[in-house]
Amino acid sequence: QGQLVESGGGLVQPGGSLRLSCAASGMFIGIITMAWYRQAPGKQRELVASINSGSITDYLWSVKGRFAISRDNAVNTLYLQMNSLQIEDTGVYYCWGIPGYWGQGTQVTVSS
Predict the structure, then answer these.
(1) CA distances to 9, 67, 86 from 70, in Å
(2) Residue 28 and residue 76 in contact, taking contact as beta carbons nearer than 8 Å
(3) Contact (CB, 8 A) for 38 and 108
(4) Cβ atoms 19, 69 nearer than 8 A
(5) pLDDT in tens, 68-103
(6) Cα 41 to Cα 9, 44, 45, 67, 71, distances in angstroms
(7) Residue 19: CA count within 13 A, CB half-sphere
(8) Please, what sign has the CA dihedral across residues 31, 36, 37, 41?
(9) Neighbour tally for 61: CB within 10 Å
(10) What is the pLDDT of residues 37-71, one digit of tens each?
(11) pLDDT of residue 25
(12) Distances (CA, A) of 20 to 3, 6, 13
């Protein structure tokens, strides 16, 4: 049974940066598609970024050029580097992995 544990969220001012981590156990993230989702208050959960087994990445249009998804197979951890954060990026960020594992989420709040 796979398990995902996110960390790295917090409060940051507009224009700031955060790096989210997702530590995996019971599964090897290097051979499956992994992704980051987020859910803002009152909104549906949306796909933010994904990376497949061939390391091909894809991004939500509004975060392209600001966010970067990556993974370190040696420590079985997925990352999301978030730069130039905007107030609209506020939400709970979730790690996801095939066949449908979810982390518990980490809160990101962008506010002045």
Answers:
(1) 17, 10, 21
(2) yes
(3) yes
(4) no
(5) 999 999 999 999 999 999 999 999 999 999 889 999
(6) 16, 8, 10, 21, 28
(7) 6
(8) positive
(9) 6
(10) 999 999 999 999 999 999 999 999 999 999 999 99
(11) 93
(12) 16, 7, 16
Cis link prior to 99 (omega < 30° from 0)? yes
Give the span between the Cα atoms of 27 and 14, in whole angstroms: 35
Residues 6+ apart with CB under 8 A from 112: 13, 14
Q: What is the mean pLDDT of residues 14-34?
A: 95
CA distance 111 to 109: 6
The count of residues in the chain is 112
Give the residue among 53, 54, 59 at the shortest CA–CA distance from 27: 53
Place of tokens 């509004």: 62
Tell me the two tokens of residue 14.
Answer: 């507009």
- DSSP reduced 3-state for 21: strand
